[in-house]
Amino acid sequence: MSSTTTTRVAACQLAPTVGDLPANAEVSATAVRTAISAGADVVVLPELVTSGYVFSSPEEARGVAVTPEHGVFAAWAAACTARDGAVVVGGFCELGDDGLLYNSAAVVDASGVRAVYRKAHLWDREKLVFTPGSSAPPVVDTAHGRIAVMVCYDLEFPEWTRTAALPTAERPGADLIAVPTNWPLVPRPAGERVPEVVIAMAAARVNHVAIACADRSGTERGVDWNEGTSIVSADGWVVSEVGAGTGVAWADLDLAASRDKRLTEHAHLLDDRRPELYGAVV
Predict the structure, then answer these.
(1) DSSP characters over 208-277
(2) Over pLDDT 70: what percentage of the chain?
């Protein structure tokens, strides 16, 4: 991947209908096809885009839970064939091989499902439906660079974004963190950004990694959504956002630039870490 390569990222803000798997599958596939036909290299879809979010019971969630072999992912993969190297990251209600339910996200390209991530940090009443994941965010090597995935509330744990960005002997650090999300509307002072977007900006800046957050829109069973879909550069600035309603945030990013962690000649975001002093964190 050349340092001058530009990757076109599309973060899609959609309004899935809770409990309607066929309709949500079609909405998500249409969004992917439309974004890729408009030049997207990487498409990010919201959390639980195939199922909706505000379940009335675990049984309702189980009724729309799918495995990674479901046809919705084949539809995303088919859409990817229209553009060399296209990648989709989207959320779904997963029925695990163990019979448990997970709030998951799939990384898909023309070859099919490349990776599945299970949300590790469950928000509020999600704990009544889902089992938390127990694995670190995957970092998938794609035609457009190294893409990590996490889901919504995961973003609010700095240890998790650092885990995705930090190269190790086992895997490289991410160039882009894709975040399918459903952020419930919360009060904020006039003129201020959605708080989770502020968190994304900070995480991007302290790790020098681009972050693409695909939120959802509308109201679902009394829950209003923040409609905070945003793409944040590795320098920590919002370079594109949707605002109210459905829509797409677009950004052309040099993802390879995320690999340069130097701030100045003598300051380096990763080399300057002092892990021996951080014992209290873990």
Answers:
(1) T-EEEEE-B-SEETTEEB----EEE-TTS-EEEE--SSSEEEEEEE-GGGGG--EEETTEETTTT--GGG
(2) 99
